[in-house]
Amino acid sequence: METMILNAFFSISLFITGGHLVDTKFGLHHFSDEDYKDLFYLKNKNSITKHCTRHDKLEILKKMNRSRPEGGSQTDFQISDPYPIQDTPQQDTFNSQRPN
pTM for this one? Predict the structure, then answer.
């Protein structure tokens, strides 16, 4: 009975959002139905790596449930890149221009 209710909530959520997710920086992300199901059942403060079809890359998602002062709760997703762009070392132009 309990799983039937959770599956109904999941189906309604997937129907309304279409697999789209808004992160804490108001960025829009899109995931497949199976990935969205994994995100829906993800426990609080756990993270998972999934493929974003909108950006066509892997992203780390962390689920955070927060309590509001007015009552109720809010679920936020913190999304980060598992392979951040690192600065490549630049060539030293000062020493290459100096005469020996």
Answer: 0.68
